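Schema walkthrough. Field components (list of strings):
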Amino acid sequence: MSAPIHIRPDETFTLNVGPQHPATHGVLRVKMEMDGEYIVKAETVLGYIHRMHELMGENRTYPQVLPNLSRLDYLGALGYTHGHVLAVERAAGIEVPERAEYIRAITVELNRVASHLFWFGAFVMDLGGFTPLMYAIEDREYILDMLEAITGSRLTYCYYRFGGLYNDIDDDFIAAAKAFIPRLRKSLKKYDGLVTGNIIFRKRLEGIGPISAEMCRKYGATGPVARGSGIDFDVRKNEPYSVYPEFDFDIPVYHECDSLARYKVRMDEMEQSLRIIEQGLEKLPDGPIMPKKKPKLIKPPKGDYYQAVETARGSFGIRIVSDGTKNAYRFKLRSPTYSNMHMFDEACEGMMIMDALAMMGSLDLVIPEIDR
Amino acid sequence: MSLTLLNAVVAVVIAIGFAALNAAYLVWAERRGAGRIQRRPGPNVNGPFGLLQPPADGIKLMTKQLMIPGGADKALFMVAPVLAMAPAIMSFVTIPFSGSIVAHSMNIGVLMIFAFASMGGLAILFAGWGSRNKYGVMAAVRAVSQSISYEVPMLITVITIVMMTGTMDLKELALSQSGGFWNWNLFPSLSSPLMPVAFLIFFVCTLAETNRAPFDLGEAESELVAGFHTEYGSMGFGLFFMGEYANIVIGASLTTILFLGGWGCPFGLFPGVWWFLLKIYLLIATFIWIRWTFPRTTIYGLLNLSWKILIPISLFNLLLTAGLLKVF
Amino acid sequence: MGAYFSEIFRGLQSLAIGMGITFKEFFQPVVTVPYPYKTIKMSARYRGHIELIENEEGTPNCVACGMCQRACPSGCISLASKSVEYEVEVKGEMKTKKKKVLTKYNLNFTTCSLCGSCVESCNFGAIEFSKEYNLASSRKEDFHFDLLERLKERNS
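Field assembly_structure (string):
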């Protein structure tokens, strides 16, 4: 039943999923041409939450753009700010103290865990199970509390600065993070029993929503979506940045190409992030969190700069073309879910609407990040 | 007992009252239970333990305007909620709560309940079609195919029991299991060793027939918004809601009578209505527990489960029981 | 045939495991906070909207340099000042000097994104984050804060 059916029926009807629909987690609209429960053709329509972040990046000074980057992806904001500060630091040639880089790595990984936890809950809710969301949110709350205590905000952190950090972490944070790691490991076991092993859950995902490696390459998909299709690519390993080469961690890769593979990649990634956090807290050096020498006004020399980072959703790239002034000449954001989402149109053809929406959940879409 | 007019009126009033009270407070119980499972308190602000929440919800639903979407089939749209509620109340008439508490005992009680239960599918179809909503139509088609495919194993299981006891009267069915829990149909007997499996099948079918999670495909909110009652607000929605819970009570009552000895005590002492109520509410608690644990199945997963697993096994059970009844 | 039954059996087993987990959770204590009746203390670094800080004399620390205004990405701070002359004793002589005094400090909270750039850019320790998070109103005007006014209110 699950195999896609490629027929051209005589009569179809159009179903508008979204922009206000419980399954799209935001204002994404999918125009579906349906033959009963089967999707004949789907077309994703974007632009309902476009805020011109790239233009803002060109009209404002570099420090003024900082808060914008947290607004791209509200679930894993730190990863995106990390990319931005790394890009500007590369452009302006600012040295970052080691302690600051370690703290960045720890907080980014915490944020990645928070993002994956929320995705896990929302994904199971897409499949109709409401309770795991509550458990996941409870675990995520610990991370948000920790990050709030050091950054002052729960969602749109704006924590990194060019050259370092806004605030140093304290002993409370380290103690809380150390206590959180065994807690989450216990919870992950609980999720395995409650969700991963569940027969209904497996039946809904196994072999459903196939996305081949070839298709991933065609659309430029990255992150857990690509890794669920057997592409062993992670910016943290392939183009190491920050202090990631210092850490010992694995990149989970699954070759099944189905929704379950993408689910498993994310669940395994949480464990790997915990390992990074553990090592980071172990190795955390003392020292300043801001460089001694830092230009007062950030004016990168003329040139073209690019920096990619691995966020919770995939590879996020930021390109800055500087003309030597305090504003960027071109500020281009390459957001991972934009590429991931466009596979939906092709992948869902011939699927039933239930499976298609389950597959959409497994792509982990955050709409403000697609629209920017 | 002859059914005089007064008798009938009293019975219907009691049935409506019981159904409405159950619907209101089962919603409360469901929300409290879901809250505890999810480690939050659930509704606890209105009244002690939130007990005044159901009346508040009821008043809110009743005071809202009934909207009829443009282009909807007005007659069907209005009839559907009533049709969802009425058969549920009618079914109460024939359910024996104890040896003496039954509105109207009839010798084909089982058949009557199934006949009324099938009308629920019609109500969903009317609602989905009448509201002129694509989600509604899809949900209605799903719900109808679901209720048709689950009636089959359910009825086969019931036939097995009817064969064993030789009666279709609910009262007789319950009385045949009196004396203690070893007499219940839940446990394997000499003539029917697969009875626990039959119970499981019947239980799953009850979940599916009442559109409960994990089989709530008719109102799969993550893909079909709210399914067949997407366009309903106000008391139209309220009636669907009450009908759903009334159906749950009937399903639990039927399971109790067919498998759990009706109003009989597990140890043969003090049989009475309290045992019956205890049993049905335990079953309903299990329904709630299941709903808040599992994700939803797919429509083809659901139909596969019925046609590939439940129907073959229940048919096998029927044949086995028939054969063994002949032998012993 | 064996695979058929073992699949059914394993499926039932997985369902039972799931139900066991929710059963255990049912008896765990509640983890939520009943919000309007009970609140959580905000962390020390919580970034609310900004407030002016006063010195010992009860006047704001602000010297109206306008750094915060320039740092703000969304232009939600507007301030005005006037020069006042005052006399100080320098080396035994009385001299008149000019000083800027803050006359208006408005925060348009509707466009503020709580990034904290203003607090960071301030070299005089004149603004801080408030711990207020309970801001709700049906009128836009309620979020045009006059911070000088608020400072006076706090003092009285």
